[in-house]
Amino acid sequence: MSINDALRLIAGIMILLSVGLAVAININWLWLTAFVGVNLLQSAFTKWCPMMTILAKAGLKNEACETIMLTTIQQLVQRIRPELRCITADIAMIEVKQNNGVVIDVREPAEVAQAPTMQSINIPRGILEMEVLSRYPNADTPIYIHCATGARATLATEQLRRIGYGRVCVITSELQAVLNHQIESPLE
Length: 188
Prior knowledge:
5-stranded parallel beta sheet
């Protein structure tokens, strides 16, 4: 439980308790309700509350101080991949010939300039969704995504599936495997 949660709990209990005591015993118990209300009001402006200090000394943590564990790209890719269709470059190129699919390279243009792939259309990951929607409006278009290592391709494939493309695959092979198909099977 965080300090803020405990503070709300204590304030709620004190207000309900003072109202109950005011009804059952003496109306002056409502001064406790007023005290709690004034204290909450002043703490909104001063950012200081005596009860929060007590709760911090009791060992409760402030929500802002709690450690948030970030997910690495590698962890995210490992979590996403089982939900996606992942294939090698060899299988992708065979399927592309059979189903007239599209191979998209989601690397940045500078990376593509250093190692171009003739059979791929370069659409960087940052603009992928907008470009694919305008170029391939049919949600059943077979799309094969690759990059240098497969990580960006995995993330890109997940995004395309989220926006409605049903036949999207990740080419999990390293870039060299995709490059090897240039001589054997150029798409253009």
